[in-house]
Predict the 3D structure of the following.
Amino acid sequence: MALEDYGASFVMCPSCSRRTTQANWRANWQVCPTCGAHQALSAPERLLSVLDAGSFVELGEHIDGRDPLGFPGYPQKLEDLRKKTGLEEAVITGVGAIDGVRVVIGVMDSRFMMASMGMAVGERLAVAVEYAKNGGLPLILFCASGGARMQEGIISLMQMAKTSAAIADFSAAGGLYISVLTHPTTGGVMASFASQGDITLAEPGALLGFAGPRVIEQTIGQRLPEGFQRSEFQQEHGFVDQIVPRGSMRETLAKLLRLHGYGVMRG
Amino acid sequence: MIREILSQLDEIEAMLGVTKGAERQSLLEQREALLARCEKLTAEQKVFLARHPRRPRIDAYIHELFTDFFEQKGDRANREDPSILGGIALFHGEPVTVIGHRKGTDLNENVAYNFGMPGAEGYRKVQRLMRQAEKFRRPVITFIDTPGAYPGMEAEERGVGEAIAQCLSLMSRLSVPTIAVVTGEGGSGGALALGVADRVLMLENAYYAVLTPEGFASILWKDAGRRGEACEVMKLTAQDLHGYGVIDEIISEPVGGAQRKPQAVFETLDEALSRYLDELRGMDAGALIAARYDKFRHMGQ
Ligand SMILES: [Zn+2]
């Protein structure tokens, strides 16, 4: 049988154009086995990739946003995306375990309106952060976002203040917050909780910045150099502790938890 | 349209100084008619006023509302960013820290101050000044007037996003009273970085929004030309924001905008700042921080 006859069971890597089996691609958490390019990972897959099997319990799944501007077509767009993605909103938050250590975890999913931050995202995150503070649990957020949710106007801007206040309060109480930056993290999310971690990790090759590359290019009237605002660039400029490939993420998080006295040492 | 009304008003007012008798009476009537057309402005007209080149800038507010201003420059790491003006001053005889976006009052100044669009260094200067205010127990008063942080290469290289994020974090837990005043443009995270305050006041014709109307239109409709429509749909006026509970008080402006009679705005603002400072000075640090947390935690709900 010719390779083509396998059809959909093969995936072509958008970066190197090499093909690999669907099963292989999934087992590798959407990282190309040939070139190592990290492709988008859904929030549920992300949770599976870092948490102990069966340990996740969702928090705040009932929290929805509103349509504060009465923006034309917005409620319908949310409804369509819910059907299409199976997600209620652009972030999933909950409690899970890594190597037996309980953590509060939040994962953004870029399939849902570029994981932009509106009321629902801000509120779910704030509730998760407060839960971590009250329970004395460490906090891990996998960030990805196009920024503020334009359709919610000023209320989406205020989510930056809300999440920042929650994290500052958690931090003042001595909580550990690990921020993991994934492709792409930009705008109001970069300028709030994504940049407030005690430890900042990034996936390889992710676009990380405040202003989007197109806006910068339009403003300065020139093309940006190759690699501008990528994870490696951010690490070089001092904004990322370590770049961690997806395959090593779980063990890296486990190590950081141990180093902060969670788990074995703290019992 | 507002542009034409304002320039006609300018002409009439220039002529009033040199006109007498019946002609003067007619000019006065024309002026009244023009002012009447400024009573009810659309959101787009308010945005025009918020950006008016003669609108009072931070320099004027500092000059009129404070004494003994001592400017503090630099972020102590990279450079001085003149898009942010800050320092120590006396407000009714009491020391305060004053910080705000600086746009400048003419084209030369606009260019020198990058049209009030700070880079990372500006926001790190903000943090430095706020920490000092806390150390010396000075209340912090901020003036917000920016289309947003500058979207340039250097700003990204120096982590403008991180710098704004740290401002939000710091302001949310500052142990001294804080009051923010949106005087002109309140554009995006670059504005909010100075806005996580105990009280947020806003001039009647200022705007405060998730993005400039042009940016909003180009992101959502791929057409920056639909600015007018964006202004309406964004709910960015002081009246809208007061309704959402995002701001605490609207500072009224003279009909036709603050640039027509700035003194009236200074007086209204002076009274409001005194009133809120008196109120906030009576609270201890823990109560201030807890109340501020509550305010932003539940904003817009
Ligand atoms: Zn590949």
Observations:
- Chain B touches chain A through 50 residues (CB under 8 Å).
